[in-house]
Design a protein that fits this description.
The structure is a single chain. The protein is of the alpha/beta class. It contains five helices and seven strands; from the N terminus they run βαβββαβαβααβ. Strand 3 and strand 4 form a beta hairpin. About 7% of the residues have low confidence.
């Protein structure tokens, strides 16, 4: 993979996790340093129904009540981050899409001329990774542009210090 000559457009997919918040912080920081544009993307995966013989994905569209609430939450998350940001992007847009997350992220990156994707990863391993999958891994494997992943380690009981 070839690195872009300049970073003009950064895509930051978010899912409200701590690692996505860290990716948003780092993505806006990089955008400020490169005077790049940032597009923040939240992909709303349609709810599914599992019947006796099939899995059906229920369509989700911009006219549905939850859609507008999701867009408002994404906008609020971005505004909260920008208050704390050390560097500002040249411009920033917020987008909410529905679909399978990795496919949607890759489509938006390709169609939007993205130079860099900055995204969080949950760092799942073992059975949970097998069952849930990894959006970040799917994006890393198939992206035509560089992908920077940010992981915020979670605390486990052995990480805590007794008082």
């Amino acid at each position: 993979m070839r690195l872009p000559a300049a970073i003009n457009r950064i895509l930051v997919p978010i899912d409200f996790s701590p690692s996505a918040r860290a990716a948003l912080e780092y993505g806006t920081f990089l955008a400020g340093k490169f005077t790049a544009e940032v597009e923040v993307l939240h992909v709303w995966e349609p709810p599914g129904y599992v019947g006796p013989d099939a899995l059906a994905l229920l369509p989700v569209g911009s006219g549905q009540p939850g859609w507008e609430q999701t867009r408002i939450e994404v906008q609020r998350e971005v505004e909260h981050q920008l208050i704390r940001a050390a560097a500002r992007p040249r411009s920033l847009s917020v987008r909410v899409e529905s679909g399978e997350p990795s496919d949607t992220i890759l489509r938006i990156a390709r169609d939007g001329g993205t130079d860099l994707i900055v995204m969080g990863t949950h760092g799942r391993t073992g059975l949970s990774r097998l069952l849930i999958g990894s959006v970040a891994e799917a994006v890393l494997r198939r992206s035509a542009c560089p992908v920077l992943t940010i992981r915020v380690p979670t605390k486990t009981p052995r990480d805590t210090v007794p008082l």
